[in-house]
Structure formats: C-alpha cells, structure tokens
Amino acid sequence: MEYEDPDGYGPGGYHPVHLGDKLNNGRYVVVHKLGYGSYATVWLMQDLHQNRHVALKLVTADASSSSEEAKFLRFLNSQPKPKGFGFLSMFRRNKNPQLFPQSFFPALLDEFTLTGPNGTHLCLVTEPLGLNLSITLKHVKQLPLAVAKKVAVQMIQATVQMHGRGVVHGDLHRGNILFCLPGLETWTREQVNVKLGEPICSTGDSDTESSIVSDSDLSRTRDPSSPTPEYFVYPPSIEDMVPLCLVDDCSIRVVDFGEAFFSHSQGVQKQLATPPAVAAPEVLFEDVLTPASDIWALGCLIFNTICGHSLWSYLTSLDDVLIDITLAYGRLPERWWTKWEHREDYFEQDGQLKEDQVGKILTDCRDLETLIIKQLLEVRPDMEEEELDEFSRLMVAMMKLEPAERVTAEGALRLIPQAW
C-alpha cells in the first residue's frame, strides 16, 4: 500500500482530504500528496496569498493536542547561532567558508487548527520537501558517494545547530531526514504535474483501478461529516522523485520534533520511540538521556548513509540489536546488562557468546572499528585508505558505549574526513 492505512480514519485519527480542498479560509488549496506517517498526512498546497507552493502537515486529532513540533521549529529557526560557533569559520577541511548557509530545519510558515469529523487537527505549513532518506535508500540501495558525503556532513551540521541551542531531537533516523526539492515553491501547476506526475487516486477497493481525479470531481461538494475520504491519494512515484532529490548540490532538512526535548545538565528521564537500530543503549534501557543520545543515532545514520545499509540489525527485534552491540563491545555495563531480560539466552555472564549460539549468529567481527572498516571495504571500494581510517575514527568517537565518552556534535564536525 502506498497511501495511509484507511483504518486510521475515525475519531482521533486522520482528517479526510481531497484534491482541490481549500483550507484556512480558502488560503491553501490541495494540489498533491507529499507523504504520510502514523500521525499525519502531508500535502502539497498552493498558497493563494503568497502565490507559491507549500507543504501542509495535517496531524491526527489525537496527536495534535500533545504535539510540540511547532514550538521546536519556531525556536530552532529563530535563535542565533550556537555559542562557540567562531571556530567553524576556521574549519580547515571545508573549501566552502559558509558551513551553515541556512537552517537545516523546515521553515514554519504558518500554523492553524482545523476541526473536522474526526476531531481538531494541528496544521503546520512549511517549505515543501522531497523524499526521506529511508525511502531513497530502499529505492537506490546506495547513494552516489559524493551525495552521501554531503548528506552526512549536513546531518552533523544540523546536530551542531540543535545541540548548540539546547535541543535534543530524540528521534534521529533515516525517515526523519528529508531531501529538498529545489524550485518546487515556484513551480507552476503544469510543472508539478510533469515533474511529480499527476495525482493518482484509489477508492481503497482492490477491484477498482487507480485513476486520475477529473476536473469535475475536484469541484464537487462533499459530505463534511464523513470521517473517511472518498478516495486516497498516492504520493508522487519514487522514480519521479529520486532524480529531483539526488542532485550534486543537494540539501537536507531534519524533521519531526515530536520526541524532542531541551537538554539538562543532569540529563532527562524520558521514554523515546526511536527505532532500536539507531537508538543509543541508554534509550533502549530507558536510562538518563543527554545530547549524547543523538550522537549515537547520528553515527548510525551516517554509517547507513555512506554504506547503504544499517550497522546493526534493522527493523528486527530489540534482542537482535542488543546481540549486535554486545558482540561489538563485549559485556554491557552492569546497569544495562541486568535489565536485558533475554541476555542469558545468548550470552554467558562474562559476555561471551554461548556455545549453542555459535553458528546461529554471525561472529566474524567482534570489534567495532574492524566491523566498520570491513563493511566499508565491501561496499565502498573507491574510498582511499586514509579516508577509511578517518571515517572509522569518526564512527568510533560517536559510538562510544558510555554516553559521557562520546564526542560532541562540534567534535564530530572536526573529525570529518579530510576528503569531505
């Protein structure tokens, strides 16, 4: 299925949207769908006041009351550059003196609420963006190396900006890294249809073919009390979007601040929904959280971006991820080791793999640096030896097991390989 789950419509769920709908007193007109998630649908809109295209994130009713995303976007896009920023202008490895030419977060252009048959929904209007990194990697398997390096650097720069302003994202994963679509704001309707394809819709009936909505249907009056839309809109095809996103001068935005929090000197006790494959050990074990939790996730993201696959088991169980981490680091610190309910199914008390697990679990690399180098050599044979060594040092510095030992975001920026 390439559209949101129809079961998500109902009290507390999605708001039903149709192409041509006008929102916020007629200011925004629905042009196309850009994407969807568990808690929102995202639409390409024509802003009739500004004569430009924008993105509108329409949050589910249940999630709207607790969402703090607008607060963090306003804060990050309005605050001055972080303290200690001066050293960046002297960053010896970057040929472009403008390391931070713009914010790496979507510009919040407008916000309002919309009341419909399923409740009251938060609506956030931002710059329109393209594919996320997750969908892109599933399609192309591996980014062009030059693009991968640029994305990796920008993710670090974005984290410097966040942490310099006291914000911890809390949910850094490839689904929350989006590519910009240069020029989309000013495209004509014809250009939208040509470059993104005309919107394709489905009634949700498996026996009915998907189709393009007719002009007469766009203008038809609909039942405002219906909790479900008359049809579901597919986002643009990935094949159309990929070449628009993966350009030489690509830019990214970090999105979805639903798990974000402000850092505190004593750390923060908070349960996060970060995918296990990128979640730091302290997140997995619900320990105290600090900006270092983002650094671990960022390290996983950078590895995934450069190599095209995850460092740890992805989209599998928590146990699978903890097995991978234990094999790379050895026995976990006591405060985490004793919390792992199923550890004795796989490991002895000293952290050694049980004999009955040998052969069931891959054990060819038991050292993080060796693991990183081995995988890089397999998928990036065009990287120079010096670059490989520098990259592995960056990864190891970001992914220290103990949060207090991890490099900061600014420290990671200093460790970026010379060739980047």
Considering the chains and any ligands shown, give keywords for the structure.
420 residues, alpha+beta, 3-stranded antiparallel sheet, 31% helix
Describe this structure as you would to a colleague.
This protein is α+β, with helices and mostly antiparallel strands and 420 residues long. A hairpin with a 4-residue loop joins strand 3 and strand 4 (52-59). The strands form 4 sheets. The protein has a 6-stranded antiparallel beta sheet with strand order 1-2-3-4-6-5. Strands 7-9-13 form a 3-stranded antiparallel beta sheet. Strands 11-10-12 form a 3-stranded antiparallel beta sheet, with no helix packed on it. The chain has helices at residues 61-64, 69-78, 133-140, 145-164, 189-196, 215-218, 238-245, 281-284, 291-307, 318-329, 334-337, 368-379, 385-398, 409-414, and strands at 22-23, 28-36, 40-47, 52-59, 108-116, 119-126, 129-132, 167-168, 177-180, 200-202, 211-212, 232-233, 252-254, 261-262. The longest helix has 20 residues, at 145-164. It has 14 helices and 14 strands. The relative contact order is 0.13.
